[in-house]
Write a structure and sequence with these properties.
Elements (H helix, E strand, L loop, with lengths): L10 E4 L3 E7 L2 E9 L3 H14 L5 E8 L5 E5 L9 H11 L4 E8 L6 H19 L2 E14 L1 H13 L3 E6 L3 E7 L4 H11 L5 E14 L1
Antiparallel strand pairs: 1-7, 2-3, 3-6, 4-5, 4-6, 7-9, 7-10, 8-9
Amino acid sequence: MPETPSPTVEFISIANEFRHEYVVEKSRFITTVYPCSTEEEAQAFIGRINKEFWDARHNCTAFALGPKQEQQRSSDNGEPSGTAGKPMLEVLKKTGITNIAVVVTRYFGGIKLGAGGLIRAYSHSVAETLRLAPKELHTIRTELQTTIDYALYGAVERHLQDAQLHYEASFGEQITLTILVVPNDVERIQKELQDMSHGAATCNVLDAIEVVLPLD
């Protein structure tokens, strides 16, 4: 069996830039999250949001980079120390989502929230935005290629969908399926395909590759 590329650590990020607004005591908290892999990309994003919301009282920031969030940074941007950037970063650390930069833009509504209120508002804003944002899994999958007759396609397709396996189909005299399988599951999936086809399906193990898969 082909060897798995290494060292690669599985991690979750967001699929694209996403924005969500939260209002508390008339203050608007506009959270924008952005996928990035370097500090330069993160700072460029932060600069862009600062220009977009130039009239806001605060644009507080946090980012986490690397498969294990090796790089971390945050800024309160004028809010009382420890009430914005650090709580935002703590949410990132708790979720484990990485390769991401976050800006929470605050438009003051005239009612002071106090330190505790600010911490709760910034934390909630980031947590809710991450909950709603489309996410993706960066991981390793082995390509398993199988060739089957058309008569088996419906049953095999249902089986792959029930197992939540990603695959592509090529149609010719027979159907060739290229399936992305967790490396440790390859032998089991091969056996299941063989059992379903009563030994008629041919299976070839191809390369283990880095893939990005959408998460619900």
